[in-house]
Every structure is written in structure tokens, then in C-alpha cells.
Amino acid sequence: MKKRLTLLLALLTLSCIKPNTEKTSFSQEALSETLLNPQGEQVAFQDILKQHQGKTVLIEVWASWCGDCVKAMPKIKALQESNPEVEYVFISMDKTAQAWEIGLEKYALKGAHFMANDQMQGVFADAIDLDWIPRYIIVDKTGKIVLYHAVETDFDTIKTTLTSLK
């Protein structure tokens, strides 16, 4: 009986784990979703990517309330120093524009800034398979996603990926 229960628990646990599939392009749903810019305008994600066409882009999905995000900021700033040719796009999952604006000022991250309209449980978050923040996505110069699912503990992989794209 004990063995059966253990096996059942193991199967249930494995069935709840989301597969870590690496995508090479964004879904149409993600591309068409709009994000708020600091000027209060809605911008389609596909238009944000077009602004950085021909460049390597590191996208960080974060929030000012996220302890892991704040802890990773020195690492992002170090990446920016060692990879100045990379374009940085920050997408906030803050609950309010005011909290986002305070976070932008407080943390002074250099790059393009946007905020998801419906935070962690919304359409954009679902469209990029968001399950944790901070989350990092790297897009190469051709527009192909080369790293889809990296988190704060994956900075060695992020550095290696950026180096390989130089």
C-alpha cells in the first residue's frame, strides 16, 4: 500500500510539472498583445520587437514588488556593462502604473520600459508561458528566440548565450 501511494504521488507531481519547452518565436497572441509605455500609450509587443530589429535583445519580465527581481538587478546592470551592444527591454508585471513608475525611478534600469496590462495572470503572461519572475528571454539579430525560459539563477546561461551572439 505504501509503495502504491508513493508511486501515485510521484505520478501526480510529474503530471503537474510544466514542460520547459524552448520556443524560437513568439505566438501571434503574444505579438498582438499591447503593453503600456511610460508615456501612457499602448504599444503592441510586435511593434516593440520591430523597434529593436537587427539587434540582440534581452527581455526581462519583472516587478518592483519581486524580491528575486530586485536581487538580480546588479547582475542585469553588470550584463549591460559587459554587453553594451545588446538592447534591453523591461516588461513590468506591477499591479499599478504608479508602483511601476516608482520602481523605474528607484532601480534606474537602462533600456526600453513597458508594463503588462493584466499582470502575472493575464493574456500576455499566458502567451509567453510566464510562471516565475524575473524571467529572461533573448532574441537574436534575426528575430529568433535563442533563450526562452531563463530565471534569476540562470545568469551563467544568459552570459554564455549573449557571448555566443556577438
From TrEMBL:
It comes from the Bacteria. GO terms for biological process: cytochrome complex assembly. Pfam families: Redoxin. One of its GO terms (cellular component) is cell envelope. Keywords: Cytochrome c-type biogenesis, Disulfide bond, Redox-active center. It is found in: Cell envelope. PROSITE patterns: PROKAR_LIPOPROTEIN, THIOREDOXIN_2. Residues 24-166 form the Thioredoxin domain. The keyword Disulfide bond applies. This is Alkyl hydroperoxide reductase. It comes from Flavobacterium crassostreae.
